[in-house]
Each structure stands twice: as C-alpha cells, then as structure tokens.
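User: Second chain of the day. Same drill as before.
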Amino acid sequence: MINRRHWLSAAAPGLMLLQLANTPRALAQSGADAAMNSTPLHRAVQANDLGRLRQLLAAGAAVDARDAQARTPLLLATHANLVPAARLLIEAGADVNAKDAIQDSPYLYAGARGHLEILKLTLAHGADLRSTNRYGGTALIPACERGHVETVRTLIAAGMDVDHVNRLGWTGLLEAIVLSDGGPRHQQIVKLLIEAGADVNLADREGVTPLQHARQRGHSETARLLAAAGAR
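Assistant: Same format as last time:
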C-alpha cells in the first residue's frame, strides 16, 4: 500500500506553494503585481481584445514579453483557454515552451488542463515533449490524473514517453489509478496507455504496482484491463 505520509512529505513544498498562492491576499497581490509589470500585449490578452492584439503584434510588440510572474502573453491566453488569442500569438512566433516562475509553459499547461485546441497548436509549433513541470512530470502525467482522455490520446500520438516517472515516483499510468476514482474516463486512459506500450508493472517508490493499486482501491475494471495486459 502506498505510504501517503511519504507522498505528502515529498509533495508538501509544492502543495504549500499552491495553497499560499490561492489565498485571497495572495491572489490580490498577484493581480496587483501583474498590473504593474504586464505589457500592453498582456493586457490585450487579459481583455480578450483580438483587435488590439492584432494591432500590437503588427506594430512589433515583443510577443514573449514577461509579466511579474514571468508569464508570456501566450501563457495568459492558455490559462483562460482563449483559442483565437493563442492562435494569433503562436502564428506571430510566440514560444510555446517559454516557462513562467513556477515552470509552467503554454504547452505544459494546455496538456495538464485539457485545453485541447491550444495543445494541438503548441504541438504543431515546436512543443518540447521532453519538457517537465515543477514536479518533474511531462504534460501527459497530469492529463492522465485529471481524466483528459482526448488530451492523453493526442499526446500519445505525438510521441510522448508513456513511462516517464516524475519526482514523486509516478508515471501517467500510476496517476490515472492512484489519483482517480477509477471511473470510465480513467479506465479509457489506462486502456490508451496499455495500447501505447506502457510498462504495466512499473511500480512506485514503495514497490506497489499499478495492478496492486487498482485492486486496493476497488477499481475492478481497471484491474481487469491491467491483468489482461500481463500486469502482476
């Protein structure tokens, strides 16, 4: 059985940062900092003003300028899933791999959040499949955890390493089991990973295999899929 205390200890710094970043005071400060440091291009994206965005780009605005959190205008567009704005920025040469202060890039964020149209744009414009987030995970791993079936399918088709292990010692397959309710979406993701050749016996740091995790959690259909693929 997975040692939850061990996992929480390993994840605590990142979880604490996320908690602090989402307090009302922190959010207000973040907004104030962004307002002080953002460029007209950032503000046009935040307003979803495509006309202004086109004007600024045509005038030579720095497409990869950073705000107080080191976010580019494209990352802001990705946060809000503003597909037309993202398309304009990418076509103007925005870097789809440019990371902010917490190691998110437009490509990584789109994958993690299931923003499929923007993800496809990033993949078509040089997304680095080997890039990782602050937890050492690829775009595929959080997509598996969050049940983004089409995102997982798209990333696999792009050539993603399905057996990449993050700093917590988990693969996409493990996260699709350990951090899910074992429902239909996650079952489909497990099936996609198996079909893509994922190692069904790649255990976590405690030596617990995907099949063992599935059985411990009562994910009977997931366990059946794994066993049929040779999992132990």
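The CA atoms of residues 129 and 160 lie 6 Å apart.

User: Great, on to the next one.
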